[in-house]
């Protein structure tokens, strides 16, 4: 068998339900439709399907979309994504699937990766895929979601939740964060960053949903923490103290910490750790530096410290991560 015959792109099926939001429907196609390997071959094959035979599906806008595939497309998918819909009927009101939707979901093969964007999580929850698992949805729906599905461990503060074979995202643009994360998980940071650049979005957004919940507008004359973050990013390899970051904005530590959390959604310490994890990932993928060198360059100090942080953030050791994604980078 030749290399061309062995190559098979990862198949993503996007399930379009009546009342869908066109923006969310387009996210998987935009993100997964971009990555290619070194020979220009698409790494993903993205198809849109319905619970019915091919035909029109109503949106929440003043137009319908024609979906080219029926539910049979779910049977051949490696990943199934359920975007948001405003017409989920019994799923949204009672937490149960319609017969039509249950039959469609029943075609999905065991082991297929499942993902949802915004209220698409209601479908996964009603099907039982989120029982006992962490998950998220739009912050405005989180309380109702938890009441309707008490077995789900809802986290309304994050942009997305990766629980291995099941992933959920918050509202609207958080679907972009989720899809970029899946590309990063499948083929590494370099591929995901390239997609982000082409899409003109950040490859990784700081913080969670907390920063988007409506609050009193701060005085525009007050200082922000932007300069401190830029300063810290330029010296991740050095020890960075909270007082030093606060000093960049001429604030007290207490004021800076409060302002930082308001703007970013996490504490300065959590933000620094995330940036260092991302730096370590990039170095593990793109360089031959030793583990000690990567740890120093990323600001973890020691390989053991880096191992602990990556294990906690990614669920794998630095060695395993490099083995997986160096191979992926060479393959593409």
Helices and strands in order, then pairings?
Blueprint: H1 3-6, E1 10-15, H2 22-32, E2 44-49, E3 55-58, E4 64-67, E5 79-82, H3 90-94, H4 99-105, E6 113-116, H5 121-126, E7 134-135, H6 142-148, E8 153-154, E9 160-162, E10 166-169, H7 174-187, H8 189-199, H9 226-233, H10 242-248, H11 253-264, H12 268-286, H13 291-298, H14 303-314, H15 318-331
Parallel strand pairs: 1-2, 1-5, 5-6, 6-10, 7-8
Antiparallel strand pairs: 3-4, 9-10
Helix pairs in contact: 2-7, 7-8, 9-10, 10-11, 12-13, 12-14, 12-15, 13-14
Structural write-up:
With 332 residues, this protein is an alpha/beta fold. It contains 15 helices and 10 strands. It has helices at residues 3-6, 22-32, 90-94, 99-105, 121-126, 142-148, 174-187, 189-199, 226-233, 242-248, 253-264, 268-286, 291-298, 303-314, 318-331; strands at residues 10-15, 44-49, 55-58, 64-67, 79-82, 113-116, 134-135, 153-154, 160-162, 166-169. Strands 2-1-5-6-10-9 form a 6-stranded mixed β-sheet. Strands 3-4 form a two-stranded antiparallel sheet. Strands 7-8 form a two-stranded parallel sheet. Strand 7 (134-135), helix 6 and strand 8 (153-154) form a beta-alpha-beta unit. Helix 7 (174-187) packs antiparallel against helix 8 (189-199) and helix 12 crosses helix 14. The two termini are 19 Å apart. The model is unreliable at 213-221 (pLDDT under 50).
């Amino acid at each position: 068998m030749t290399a061309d015959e062995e190559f098979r792109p990862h198949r993503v099926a996007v399930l379009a339900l009546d009342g869908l939001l066109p923006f969310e429907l387009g996210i998987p196609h935009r993100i997964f439709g971009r990555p290619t390997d070194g020979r220009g071959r698409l790494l993903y094959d993205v198809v849109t399907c319905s619970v019915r035979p091919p035909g029109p599906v109503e949106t929440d806008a003043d137009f319908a979309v024609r979906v080219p595939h029926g539910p049979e497309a779910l049977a051949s998918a490696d990943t199934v994504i359920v975007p948001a819909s405003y017409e989920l009927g019994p799923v949204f009101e009672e937490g149960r699937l319609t017969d039509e939707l249950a039959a469609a979901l029943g075609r999905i093969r065991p082991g297929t990766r499942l993902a949802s964007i915004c209220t698409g999580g209601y479908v996964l929850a009603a099907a039982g895929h989120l029982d006992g698992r962490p998950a998220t949805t739009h912050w405005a729906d989180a309380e109702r979601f938890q009441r309707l599905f008490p077995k789900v461990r809802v986290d309304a503060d994050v942009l997305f939740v990766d629980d291995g074979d099941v992933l959920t995202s918050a509202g609207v643009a958080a679907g972009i964060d989720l899809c970029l994360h899946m590309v990063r998980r499948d083929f590494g940071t370099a591929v995901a960053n390239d997609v982000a650049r082409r899409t003109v979005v950040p490859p990784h957004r700081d913080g969670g949903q907390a920063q988007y919940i409506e609050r009193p507008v701060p005085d525009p004359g007050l200082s922000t923490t932007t300069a401190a973050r830029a300063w810290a990013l330029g010296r991740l390899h050095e020890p960075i103290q909270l007082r030093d970051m606060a000093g960049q904005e001429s604030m007290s530590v207490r004021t800076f910490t409060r302002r930082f959390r308001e703007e970013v959604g996490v504490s300065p310490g959590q933000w620094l750790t995330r940036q260092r994890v991302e730096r370590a990932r990039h170095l593990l993928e793109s360089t031959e530096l030793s583990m000690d060198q990567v740890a120093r360059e990323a600001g973890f100090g020691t390989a053991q410290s880096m191992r602990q942080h990556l294990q906690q953030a990614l669920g794998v050791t630095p060695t395993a991560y490099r083995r997986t994604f160096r191979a992926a980078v060479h393959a593409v």
